[in-house]
From TrEMBL:
It comes from the Eukaryota. Transmembrane segments: none annotated. One of its GO terms (cellular component) is nucleus. It comes from Clonostachys solani. This is Xylanolytic transcriptional activator regulatory domain-containing protein.
Amino acid sequence: MEGQSLPTPPGALKSPRTSLPSFEDELPEIRRPKKSQHEAESPADPGTLKLRESGASYVQSAHWEAILTKIRGLKEDSVTDSRALPGSHLFYGPNRHATREEILAAIPPRQVVDRLMALHFDSYFVTPYIIHGKKFLREYETFWEDPGATSISWIGLMFSMLYIAAQLQTFTIDVSDGRAESLKAECLAMKDAFREKAIQCLVLARYTMGGPYILETLINILTGEFVLLKDGGVTDGWLLIGMILQLATRMGCHLDPDHFPGISPFEAEMRRRMWIVILQLDLSLSLETGLPRNATNTHIDPKEPRNLRDCDFDEDTTEMPPSRPETEWTPVLALITRGRLVSALGLICDINTDISPPSYEKVSKVENLLEDVRNHAIPLVLRWGTAPHPITDSPNLVIQRVSVETTYYKARILLYRRSLVSGQSPQSQERDKDSIRICLDSALKILSFQEMLHEESQPFGRLCQLRWKVTHILNQDVLLATSVLCLYLQDVDKFELPQTAGRTRRLPRAEEVRQQLTISHKIWLQRSTGSAEAGKVAKALSIVLGNTEGSDENGDGPLSYDFMADIDAIPVNGFGATFNNQYFASGFYSPLSFFDNVLENRGT
């Protein structure tokens, strides 16, 4: 420190660089298993890195866009969307500081708020998991009695819920006439205003310090910006969920509340729900961006939430009741089930994060865990099954079943997709054939769900009232499956032309893949005018299927189109496919009629 040279440590001349011992050095039992010769020769697949003046962009090799870049004939800029998105308003928005009085003055009349809140609750979108209905309704009534006495963080939560509801309202508007266009513009303006007020409340509440209602508000903003609309760019979503995760960790949500005797049974249960929601959002956004997940299994031990309805417990509960049987569907049962799948899917994502190919033993171990969850941890009420679903099953239950099923098949694709891009060696040829079969079976199953959901989302379909969920939530699983099948069909000769007695024999699998991709292509084309992601995949399918000179399903015009023009024409805050719903009222002041009595019946 006084200018004297430091003594040279022994061995420094032999090794110019020194480093701290790794975990593998310290704990021999977790060292990587030595790979066999053919595994050691497997090429590393680091993913895709794009360098532009606007910034650097990296996605993992398992991401659907990285898979599409391997398709010959598909230009790079047809896959990567170069439009500058506005970004999260929490990061970039024109957010000015507001006073409490200004925020209170921006609250709409109670009649408007009531209808929007009913719409929000009836959507079964995140809220049932992180907000206790009975407790919220008591706080809601107290707020209207004396708004000035309500904490600013609770008001921020209310605005974030109005923000979600205003988005949902736009999905019910018939855009076939000029009046509907003005109503939609009004809803979009209100959506932006509600988001701004929610963020201003967070700032006033000094949200980085944590506290009541902060995580709930942040999660609502996140889901509104990146799950429903994706109008802020998926990278911002990945950054925002990382911030939420760190804030939740600072608040101790990563540890089970039983460690802390001062936490009430009610708060303990809600914290467990909150943590599992954050883990699932983290994993979902990580897969969507093609980046490592923020959360790992280290230092995390919260117990699983109980399968309870909100009417089963409240703030004054001194001892939590036992879980309801998992034969009974509750709003949180799907959350619990997906949490079990996350335990396996998270490990699969970690494998894909590792630049080195995993050993066969490691893949087998994770596969066994995934199958164990599939066979023993998914309740029967949430299994898809083979029999038709009773007409008494709610549309939300049907969609939850699809979500659970596609999560399982997505996990299988992510675990085995390397077999489609790595060269087969003689030693691993049979093993790779099994891996490819698993990928194909899983991808075809996901596309069969896409076809079913698309049909049932049309007018008179069973899911027509929830088309927004089909359009905005299940996209990523279908994107991955479509990309995998595109890649397979491009290199089908490598997979389906084995030599048999001096001649080649084509297997029938390619035709099955082509038929399913043709159906999927029509669906993506219908949605490509309102979705950049749909346009990318439709273009890739046009190239792979060789349909650029074909005709559309109605025969009215060519199937080919100016792809980049479609991308440029998409509005910054564009939605997915629009739905002309003539059977339900539209407009901000007349939401769907079946929402009217939700507040009265919530929690019963």
